[in-house]
Amino acid sequence: MNRCITTRVLEVLEWPVIREELRRRCATTSGSALVNGLAPLDQDAARARMRKISALKELIGRSRAPDFSGISDIGPSVALAEKDGLLKLEELAALRSFMIASARTMKFLRECRDEFPLLGEELGRMDRLAGIGELFGRSINDTGE
Fold first, then answer.
1. SS (H, E, C) 64-127
2. Average pLDDT in the chain
């Protein structure tokens, strides 16, 4: 949490209400868990985030938005795989769908990178998924086999 913001200020800003509303809107348990760690940003970080959000809003306003279909909470499957656990076909299929959706999102960000350089940071965070997605694409078909 930002050390400059007192508990009283957070109460006046209704920060607990905002966090609860965000948690209510989360589609996944991992998204909900991330809400717990949210804290107000410092002024510079808030401005940077607002510029990034403005770029995304401009893209969406031009009828260009990433397709997030296929994105689901893969956290439990990843945790199991990290422990050398055996994944079920449904879990592998969900991982494959997630990777395909990630590849679509990366393609979208690459296409927009020159016009909206602020989105390049998001692309950098996702680049490590490219090789994994190719492996899943070659290894598992649409029926999870």
1. CCCCCCCCCCCHHHHHHHHCCCCCCHHHHHHHHHHHHHHHHHHHHHHHHCCCCHHHHHHHHHHH
2. 82
